[in-house]
Specification:
Elements lengths: L2 E7 L15 E9 L1 E7 L7 E3 L4 E3 L3 E2 L8 H5 E6 L1 H8 L7 E9 L5 E8 L3 E4 L5 E5 L4 E8 L6 E9 L2 E6 L12 E3 L5 E5 L1 H6 L4 H4 L2 E9 L3 E9 L7 E2 L6 E5 L4 E9 L7 E8 L4 E11 L5 E2 L13 E3 L7 E6 L8 E12 L1 E8 L3 E3 L6 E5 L4 E8 L5 E10 L2 E6 L11 E3 L5 E6 L9 E9 L3 E8 L5 E3 L6 E5 L4 E8 L6 E7 L5 E9 L25 E2 L7 E4 L8 E9 L3 E9 L4 E2 L6 E5 L4 E6 L7 E17 L7 E4 L6 E4 L3 E3 L5 E5 L13 E2 L17 E19 L4 E2 L6 E4 L1 E9 L6 E17 L7 E4 L2 E4 L3 E8 L7 E5 L2 E5 L9 E9 L19 E6 L5 E5 L16 E9 L10 E7 L4 E4 L10 E9 L9 E7 L7 E18 L16 E3 L3 E6 ...
Length: about 1400
């Protein structure tokens, strides 16, 4: 509360009418400790004085005082412009002896230290050795400084740290005003800059202080953007001349390996609310710096005393932080701890365990400052806060605050008026794991030229990095090998740079989408060693997605999410300029990896990566919990292998041995070298035991030291490319909630937990525990999209933001099921995930701003979920479709903001031994690319995947919707992709990932393979021609993909519900899966059913029996456990788009059609082994029409029993084969009104039909067939005579195979039926049938049924026509061949027959 006064003579020329602009002055007050302002008066008599009543200054003309809400960086550097017009106004009355009195008032603390300078505007300011100077520079403007070097043989270090904006520095010994055109040295990287000029380099440029006494270095600071900064110029003289560290101001620096850089931080506070002193250091590259501090004393004048006694170092310190090379080192000395003080000096030593650049910051006020566009590391303890601040100088900003978790879980709170808390904040983001908050300038609470306060709350003990940027055009500086979370709006670009010092390292840039959005990478390379200017210079250009000349690498037009840059660029230092272009709103993690340094992994968050053939990608993770650790590598292509080291100083490595086929690896303790997916679980209780059978443990494993999470020592991981591979890697503590990447299956294992019937919505704590269970938790994020609207699909509604969750357990079903009794209780010992012990999926959801902790851990108990899916077993897995059509379900509308889905997978039976369940889980929206992984060991029958899916049309049903899949190719076997339609109509399209198709994924305009229910085609790109064949009757659309090392992209195009299967073929091109065929036919074609003895309540069915054809067998075999079911459907139930000729279509109808029922058909013992089966179905409704569909099934147990009986290895392994089904053709049955008299009708009887129909029925059938044949022959003869049709063509037409498409989809439109290849047209009869029977084959209106011949159609029609007189009006189209080719002739006929 006192003043220091200064006399300032003004440059006034009384003879001049108007003063020139070169007389403009700038007074700069640079604070080093405490708080002060400068006040100006025109005489000493009117000098400014302290006013005790207002606790401020009085009697002054103007001052540097700014409101305390202004950013701390601006409080530390205050400037007062005194323009020539102001000088003239002050001096004109006096004419001579014109001056100002400058008073500096110290406030808030007992002692304030500062520097005061006077310069002409745009002139050069003097910089003192080791003392930070604050400055501001406008965009495309320059500020100039000078430094006097008086000692020889010392390196000169210039550190430039921006508070906001992006300043660059240029240095010269000869140019007083260096700039980007005239300089000797420069540092122009984005973000903090540190430049070291070696003493030999200084000497070579003519500077020798031994001869001249001193040398003047001129510095020019250029504003690439409007910028505020601090700059330190110093020589490294050790502890004798420590650098000054300012309160709450980040300072960049560098240190060499094995050396120290020293700082001095003066603490002078009378504020009793000061409760801690905090220092943090964040590496800016792959360096590893440690902190050592000692507390010293101040004398009465506020100056340090006996400084030499307080030199800190590795052997002499009060406190230290020597963490492994994680995101940050931090020391916090709180009130009550030894050496804590409010009036003292703190000496800091930064030791280079591994040399590199860093940012160091100190604070005794409880708030740290953020450097815009540069991530700052931090740590927060459970249920505590750490606070940061930044200044927003942009009026129309897009502020993005990203909290990237390294370990633990923390939440983000933001305010502009006070330090925020859970109860008091303006904005927040409290997701599990990473958090990001975007604040737009149109937000009502938005402000500019003001301070923002950011609070990080520890939901758990956590380490993190925090990044803030204020404009969409900001260029963020990435730390190599450290992931950074970002958010990019749709159709916007985010820019980054990264500097890699090694020219011998391969480089990969990877993005991992954390929600359902998508983005592309664009990358350009620069030689940083010869790079002249980042400030709009001649060489530097940011990548522009619309201009291919501005980038060298991109992921656009590919399914890749990485760019790989081999070490062939021959650049000493590689500078990457990166643009991320978002096609939708997206949150993603971006990481630049260097093959010579490990990549930091985040616990619980997967990362996408790429490894070249024979190369290694190394990772590091820092365990933070005393729990077992699970490491999982999932291949998207190729074959990566997993190795983990138990030595915190050794990184696993692999290479080619003496022979080209030999791979030699070292420095590892655990390894897993399965094909495709590898997983290792590290047990803290028994680290040298193989928790999983696929884990190999090296003999060097030390149980006492190999894995000790309590030490927080790093765990090094290596992924070796046995084949070039794209993969995702996940490290998580067992039991930790895992974030799912859209469309990517994640292998996981349950852990011991509890069923909770009530949770606190505030903390998520369990308020009522029921019993123990085995459970895993997951989260999935759906990005906000205005296209989240509902769309019509089939008979219901759907949405482009629907969520599909798939769970596929892994189970060894060869183990016996045992029963144990204890008193009145009994348990069945059956492994979780098996059919005898299924899993259950529970889901809850919420908009991101309304998610409370109580929803993070759903369970299948009542009130603890919004959707549940039970009975999930290893035989087929299960899919839950969360649709907007389900009112009151788990669907969350992302129209306004992102949605979070929380999932749990748990066991349902009481665990006797707490066995864990292993399974894979995936979540996605319809627009996400779903990965079908490389692992082929899920089922022994070669079925890689089988999942339920639903497509919503993009508009009307004539405009198909699309779902996309990435299928890992097999170099040894062909693959078959099959689509089983439940309702609607969907086509399959496929392309290899070699860019042969015009788009990334196949489209109706560009595909290599195509199949729907009418035709199956392949396209030759070299010939530009399609080759098509008709799809067999009752067959599912399927495409066969030739063996190849790369992947395939698959599109399902259409609308409806379906099951997608991917199957492997053996080396001979035969299917590995069993199949059901008809007795004596060895095919499923002709699976017809006849009816006899139809009464009002029953019917007798006759059908050809099904047999099982095992791969490798010579003939089909009967299966003892094969079962038949009759599905009964009301006639009108089949009028929609549901399919009656597929198992999933029947399941859909059973679940949705009113009156639908299923009746087991039990074959009589005397018909075992017979070709035909005759059974009676009772319980029918009198005087009604219904469809009867017979379904034959042989499930996993059936196939296992048959395999053992035949001594076959196909389905006798540890995992059961999937159920094989055969659907017989639907049969329409009309029950009479009389309840007790047998009907004389013989509906659907076919040649060779079963017994039990009565002799009169057989006679009528034979007569009807003869009459039909005669009618066909007569009609054909008359037609031949009338149209002069060549006899061979007519005979060929009549003899075409029976009807192939009787039960066709009723929604075929003209646009959908366009032939892909006109050269493959089959001769076809198009019949308009009246009266119709409804269903897929017949409609109640003018439905067109496709048949390949009139004779075949009549043969099929006989199975559904009564003996009463019927009229058939036909429109018969015949192809007639003449000299000009085929011509079309239409004949209308009326046929009357019994």
């Amino acid at each position: 509360n006192s003043f220091n006064y200064y006399f300032l003579r003004l440059p006034y020329d009384a003879s001049a009418t108007v003063l020139a602009a070169e007389n403009d002055l700038v007074v700069s007050l640079n604070l080093l400790q405490g708080y002060a302002d400068a006040y100006f008066s025109s005489s000493f008599a009117t000098r400014p004085v302290f006013n005790s009543s207002t606790r401020g200054a009085s009697s002054y003309l103007f001052s540097t005082f700014v409101d305390s809400a202004t950013s701390y960086s601006m409080l530390m550097n205050k400037q007062q412009d005194i323009g020539h017009d102001m000088i003239q106004d002050i001096c004109a009355p006096t004419k001579d002896n014109c001056y100002l009195i400058v008073g500096v008032l110290g406030q808030r603390v007992p002692v304030t230290r500062y520097s005061l300078s006077l310069t002409y505007k745009d002139s050069t300011k003097l910089v003192s050795n080791g003392v930070p100077i604050h400055g501001r520079v406008g965009q495309n403007r320059n500020e100039f400084y000078k430094y006097m070097l008086s000692q020889a043989d010392l390196d000169l270090i210039i550190s430039l740290t921006p508070s906001f904006g992006d300043p660059d520095v240029y240095i010269s010994l000869t140019q007083p005003f260096p700039n980007k055109k005239n300089f000797t040295w420069s540092q122009t990287a984005f973000g903090p800059d540190t430049l070291t000029i070696q003493s030999i380099d200084i000497l070579q440029h003519g500077c020798n202080p031994k001869l001249s006494g001193f040398c003047t270095f001129y510095l020019g600071v250029y504003g690439f953007l409007n910028s505020s900064f601090s700059m330190v110029v110093h020589t490294n003289e050790g502890f004798t001349s420590p650098l000054t560290l300012l309160e709450q101001h980040p300072q960049s620096g560098s240190v060499s390996t094995g050396e120290y850089t020293y700082y001095r931080y003066i603490i002078s506070s009378t504020n009793r609310l000061t409760t801690s002193i905090k220092l943090t250091i964040t590496p800016l590259d792959d360096g590893d710096q440690d902190l050592y501090i000692m507390f010293g004393q101040l004398n009465a004048a506020g100056n340090p005393v006996n400084a030499s006694h307080y030199e800190p170092g590795r052997s002499h310190y009060d406190y230290k932080s020597t963490n492994w090379a994680s995101s940050t080192d931090q020391i916090e000395v709180s009130n009550g701890m030894a050496h804590f003080c409010r009036q003292c000096v703190l000496y800091v030593a930064v030791y280079g365990y591994k040399g590199g650049h860093y940012i160091l910051q100190a604070s005794s006020q409880g708030v740290l400052s953020l450097v815009q566009n540069q991530a700052i590391g931090g740590r927060v303890d459970l249920k505590t806060y750490v606070y940061y601040s930044f200044f927003n100088a942009v009026q129309f900003a897009q502020i993005s605050i990203s909290l990237t978790m390294v370990s633990g879980d923390a939440d983000l709170y933001v305010s502009t008026t006070q330090l925020p808390t859970e109860e008091s904040y303006v904005w927040r983001s409290s997701n599990f794991g990473n958090d990001v908050k975007v604040i737009l300038y149109d937000d009502p609470q938005y402000c500019w030229n003001c301070e923002y306060f950011v609070g990080v709350y520890g939901y758990k003990n956590s380490t993190f990095t925090l990044l803030v940027s204020t404009t969409s055009s900001s260029v963020v500086k990435l730390k190599p090998n450290s992931p950074q979370l970002i958010a990019v709006s749709a159709l916007q670009i985010k820019y980054f740079t990264a500097l890699l010092a090694s020219s011998a390292a391969d480089t990969t840039v990877t993005i991992t989408e954390m929600n359902s959005g998508s983005a592309d990478l664009f990358v350009q390379l620069f030689n940083a060693s010869s790079f002249t200017s980042a400030a709009g210079g001649d060489q530097f250009v940011l990548p522009d997605p619309s201009d291919p000349s501005t980038y060298r690498y991109t992921t656009r037009h590919s399914q890749n999410n990485h760019v790989y840059i081999p070490a062939t660029h021959r650049m000493e230092e590689l500078l990457l300029a990166i643009a991320v272009y978002a096609t939708t709103d997206v949150q993603c993690s971006i990481v630049v990896t260097d093959s010579q340094a490990p990549v930091l992994l985040q616990l619980g968050t997967p990362q996408n990566h790429f490894v070249e053939l024979g190369r290694m990608v190394q990772f590091v993770v820092y365990p933070d919990d005393l729990e077992d650790l699970r490491v999982t590598v999932t291949a998207r292509s190729g074959d990566p292998d997993l190795l983990i080291s138990g030595d915190p100083k050794r990184v696993p490595h692999c290479g080619i041995g003496a022979y080209s086929w030999q791979v030699v690896c070292g420095n590892y303790t655990w390894s897993s070298r399965q094909f495709s997916t590898d997983q290792i679980i590290l047990s803290q209780d028994s680290p040298c035991s193989s928790v999983l059978a696929s884990t190999l443990v090296d003999a060097s494993c030390d149980p006492a030291n190999s894995y000790d999470p309590s030490s927080h020592k790093p765990v090094y991981i290596g992924v070796y490319g046995y084949k070039a591979a794209k993969f995702s890697i996940l490290v998580a503590a067992v039991g930790q909630q895992i974030h799912l990447l859209a469309g990517q299956p994640q292998l996981s294992t349950t852990s011991a937990g509890f069923l909770c019937s009530q949770r606190s919505p505030v903390t998520g704590a369990c308020l009522k525990v029921l019993e123990p269970t085995q459970v895993s938790y997951f989260s999935f994020r759906v990005s906000a999209s205005p296209q989240g609207r509902r769309l019509a699909v089939g008979d219901s509604l759907s949405s482009v933001a629907d969520v599909i969750v798939s769970v596929v357990p892994v189970c060894n079903e060869s183990l016996p099921v045992e029963t144990f009794n204890s008193g009145n209780d009994s348990w069945r010992h059956c492994l979780p995930g098996c059919a005898c012990n299924p899993l259950v999926l529970a889901v809850s959801s919420c908009p991101i701003s309304k998610c409370d902790p109580g929803k993070r851990r759903p369970s299948w108990l009542p009130g603890q979920h919004q959707a549940v899916l039970a009975a999930i077993s290893a035989r087929s897995g299960s899919s839950l479709i969360i649709s907007s059509a389900d009112e009151g379900g788990a669907y969350c509308d992302p129209t306004e903001e992102d949605c979070l889905y929380f999932l749990s997978v748990a066991t349902t039976t009481k665990p006797l031994w707490q066995e864990s369940a292993t399974f894979s889980v995936a979540a996605r929206t319809p627009g996400d690319l779903a990965l079908i992984p490389c692992d082929s060991q899920v089922y022994p029958d070669g079925i890689k995947a089988a999942s339920l899916d639903l497509i919503a049309a993009s508009g009307a049903l004539s405009a198909p919707g699309q779902h996309f899949y990435e299928l890992c190719g097999q170099p040894e076997e062909d693959l078959v992709v099959e689509l089983e339609q439940c309702h609607g109509r969907t086509a399959l399209l496929a392309c290899p990932d070699d860019n042969s198709c015009s788009a990334v994924v196949p489209t109706l305009a560009s595909w290599a393979y195509f199949s729907d229910d009418a035709r199956t085609c392949s396209h030759s790109f070299s010939r530009g021609r399609d080759t098509c064949t008709p799809t067999a009757s009752n067959a599912n659309p399927s495409v066969r993909l030739p063996r190849r090392a790369g992947n395939y992209l698959v599109t399902a195009s259409g609308a409806g519900l379906f099951t997608l299967r991917v199957m492997e073929m053996d080396r001979n091109g035969h299917s590995k899966a069993p199949k059901l065929v008809l007795t004596g036919l060895q095919t499923a074609s002709g699976a017809q059913v006849t009816a006899s003895q139809v009464t009002a309540s029953s019917v007798v069915l006759t059908l050809r029996q099904s047999r099982v054809f095992l791969p490798g067998a010579r003939s089909p075999s009967p299966a003892d456990l094969l079962r038949y079911r009759a599905v009964l459907l009301p006639q009108l139930a089949a009028n929609g788009t549901a399919k009656m000729n597929t198992p999933c279509g029947l399941e859909y109808l059973l679940a949705n059609a009113e009156g639908a029922a299923v009746v087991p058909l039990v074959p009589p013992p005397d018909q075992t082994g017979e070709d035909f089966l005759t059974v009676s179905v009772s319980g029918l409704r009198a005087d009604s029409a219904l469809w009867v569909v017979v379904l034959a099934e042989c499930d996993g147990a059936c196939l296992l029993q048959l395999s053992k009986r035949l001594n076959s290895q196909v389905c006798s392994g540890s995992s059961q084969c999937q159920t094989q089904s055969l659907v017989y053709w639907p049969l329409l049955v009309m029950t009479p009104a009389a309840p007790d008299s047998p009907s004389s009708e013989d509906e659907g009887t076919q040649p060779g039909g079963g017994e039990g129909g009565g002799s009169s029925g057989v006679v009528l059938v034979v007569l009807a067939i003869l009459a039909a044949c005669i009618a066909v022959l007569v009609a054909a003869f008359l037609y031949w005579r009338r149209h002069d049709l060549p006899l061979p063509d007519l005979l060929a037409w009549i003899g075409t195979s029976p009807a192939q498409k009787v039960f066709e989809d009723s929604q075929h439109s003209a646009a959908e039926m366009v032939d892909l290849d006109h050269s493959t047209h089959s001769q076809r009869a198009s019949i308009n049938a009246l009266p119709s029977s409804g269903g897929d084959g017949y409609s109640s209106g003018n439905h067109t049924t496709q048949a390949t011949s009139l004779g075949g159609w009549l043969k099929n029609w006989m199975g559904n026509v009564s003996q009463q007189p019927q009229k058939l009006f036909g429109e018969i189209t015949v192809k007639k061949k003449d000299s000009k080719g085929y011509s079309m002739t239409r004949v209308d006929e009326e046929i009357d027959f019994r």
